[in-house]
């Protein structure tokens, strides 16, 4: 009995310790291991948002760049931050595993942060202070100063490429899909993951931006650098408790094999019975702790990769499971595309929204609010909404839908998309009011501070947090949940890729709209003087873009088929193995 209990205590999802040995559930993983990961993320988000939240003001105030150039430099860098995780996911899944990829990337991250702190601290690495009203009259930063500053930013971006796709996946790996209690915890993990990391974001958006605006950039960047070092040490302290997934080979190679094999067998007919397609033995999947996936009719052309033609070349013949894994990754691409536009809206928080705040009255008595601090309300709103969603909304909806999540992940994402339409309508109306006040007080030409409180921007920041509670949490969970077990890091990087492309799209739209609206002698919508600009038109354009994107999303989800539960598939596999063994033993008995 004790032996059976000992066997039952081992995880069933293929996780091992750092040395590759099977791990006991009672001595590893769970919320104990997750606590180290979550605390790391709190500090790391403090470091990242400590840089990104106020970056547009450093570029305009210290490096003397214009509105469009500074906003584009921010979104290009943030876009890179969110795109490099594809590389990090590849290295983790194909070569080093999530843990070692994360550790090496953390060292690169720390070196980038340290260099950035030096670049804002040493007088020779930044241009002289300028008090001119028109930044065009200020001395520009030298090539060396720009090279050091942006070199540090992009070194930091490479580091986050290895940490970002792996840290949340390491956290999710601490829960065994095949243990009912741990599986239930995993359903709440992504909600509480987002809840926890936004504490770091809140600290950055309030305390750090205040220090940067009122004390100095050296301390303002030095604190998040120190925080990052502490966070990595905390993560390393949890090493004895972590469960690890063994690298399963390059997901890109496995997907390419399927696509090329299907193309090379273009003219081959598919058999009527899917069981005639090539598949590995059940025993092979069971012994390796891997998961077999049955053939599905979607993306049927790819099934040709599993048609037997006599060749065993892996670029000519793939198993049904390998084909289905590829299908799962490809099926998510239309959903991924539908998240690009809302990711572009998120990019406005740290660029145009912050620039709007600089034109408004920021005083509460003698205290002056840093414009970037309003992003703290995105965080607070998101925290409150995640708690309300998890504690009240989900239990109520569970009774109606019988879905353990309350509503499906795609329905949750859809609600977030609707919020983005509302946000941009409100932002456009608010900006229209701000411009009318500028005209009434004759402050259009000199771009002076308006007698209008900064808190008129509050609704768009608060609603952005509400949208995040629906869309961003669901997006992260959806791409993790719907990815094949062997491609979880790549699936998680879909979520970060969405934010990356959204930021690059923001740069493209800002430059394009600015250029087009200046043609034929027109003043243009986006100028260095925001009181002469027409951000109200720009935000109205975004509202229309969000509406069209929502229609696209509704079309796409009509054709999306959720993948089968992994634990259910494993249960079927175990039952089939038992049946096979029973048949084999019956045959042997009949021969005797």
Please describe what this structure looks like.
- This protein is 66% helix and 1% strand.
- A hairpin with a 2-residue loop joins strand 1 and strand 2 (367-368).
- The chain is globular and about 80 Å long.
- Residues 1-6 and 566-574 have low confidence and may be disordered.
- It is mostly helical and 592 residues long.
- Strands 1-2 form a two-stranded antiparallel ribbon.
- The protein has helices at residues 2-9, 30-52, 55-61, 67-83, 85-121, 143-172, 180-214, 217-237, 251-264, 282-288, 320-331, 333-338, 340-346, 352-357, 375-401, 409-440, 458-481, 488-516, 535-558, 566-591, and strands spanning 363-364, 367-368.
């Amino acid at each position: 009995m004790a032996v059976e209990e000992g066997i039952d205590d081992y995880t069933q999802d293929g996780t091992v310790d750092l040395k590759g040995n099977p791990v006991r559930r009672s001595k590893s993983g769970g919320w104990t291991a997750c606590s180290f990961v979550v605390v790391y993320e709190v500090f790391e988000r403090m470091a990242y948002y400590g840089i990104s939240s106020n970056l547009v003001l450093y570029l305009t105030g210290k490096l003397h760049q214009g509105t469009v150039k500074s906003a584009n430099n921010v979104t290009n860098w943030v876009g890179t931050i969110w795109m490099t995780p594809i590389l990090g996911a590849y290295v983790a899944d194909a070569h080093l595993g999530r843990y070692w990829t994360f550790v090496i990337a953390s060292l690169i991250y720390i070196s980038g942060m340290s260099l950035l702190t030096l670049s804002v601290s040493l007088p020779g690495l930044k241009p002289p202070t300028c008090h001119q009203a028109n930044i065009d009259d200020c001395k520009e930063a030298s090539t060396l100063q720009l090279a050091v500053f942006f070199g540090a930013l992009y070194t930091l971006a490479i580091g986050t490429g290895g940490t970002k796709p792996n840290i949340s996946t390491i956290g999710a790996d601490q829960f065994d899909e095949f243990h009912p209690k741990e599986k239930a915890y995993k359903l709440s993990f992504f909600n509480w993951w987002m809840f926890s990391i936004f504490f770091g974001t809140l600290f950055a958006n309030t305390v750090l931006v205040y220090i940067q605006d009122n004390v100095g950039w050296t301390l303002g960047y030095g604190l998040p650098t120190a925080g990052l070092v502490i966070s990595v040490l905390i993560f390393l302290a949890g090493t004895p408790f972590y469960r690890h997934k063994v690298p399963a080979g390059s997901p890109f190679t496995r997907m390419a094999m399927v696509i090329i094999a299907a193309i090379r067998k273009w003219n081959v007919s598919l058999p009527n019975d899917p069981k005639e397609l090539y598949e590995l033995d059940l025993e092979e999947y069971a012994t390796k702790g891997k998961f077999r996936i049955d053939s599905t009719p979607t993306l049927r052309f790819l099934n040709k990769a599993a048609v037997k033609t006599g060749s065993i070349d892996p670029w000519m013949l793939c198993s049904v499971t390998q084909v289905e894994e590829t299908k799962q990754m490809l099926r998510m691409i239309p959903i991924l595309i539908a998240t690009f536009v809302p990711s572009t809206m998120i990019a406005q928080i740290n660029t145009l929204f912050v620039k709007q705040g600089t034109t408004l009255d920021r005083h509460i008595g003698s205290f002056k609010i840093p414009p970037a601090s309003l992003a703290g309300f995105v965080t607070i709103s998101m925290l409150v909404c995640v708690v309300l969603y998890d504690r009240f909304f989900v239990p109520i909806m569970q009774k109606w839908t019988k879905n353990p999540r309350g509503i499906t992940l795609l329905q949750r994402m859809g609600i977030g998309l609707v919020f983005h339409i509302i946000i941009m309508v409100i932002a456009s109306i608010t900006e229209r009011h701000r411009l009318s006040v500028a005209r009434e007080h004759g402050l259009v030409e000199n771009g002076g501070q308006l007698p209008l409180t900064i808190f008129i921007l509050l609704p768009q920041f608060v609603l952005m947090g509400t949208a995040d509670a629906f869309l961003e949490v669901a997006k992260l969970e959806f791409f993790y949940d719907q990815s094949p077990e062997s491609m979880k890091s790549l699936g998680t990087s879909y979520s970060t890729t969405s934010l990356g492309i959204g930021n690059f799209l923001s740069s493209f739209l800002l430059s394009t709209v600015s250029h087009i609206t200046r043609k034929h002698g027109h003043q243009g919508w986006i100028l260095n003087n925001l009181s002469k600009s027409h951000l109200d038109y720009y935000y109205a354009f975004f509202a229309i873009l969000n509406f069209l994107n929502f229609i696209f999303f509704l079309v796409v989800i009509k054709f999306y088929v959720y993948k089968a539960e992994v634990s259910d598939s494993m249960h079927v596999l175990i039952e089939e193995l038992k049946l096979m063994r029973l048949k084999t033993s019956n045959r042997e008995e009949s021969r005797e």
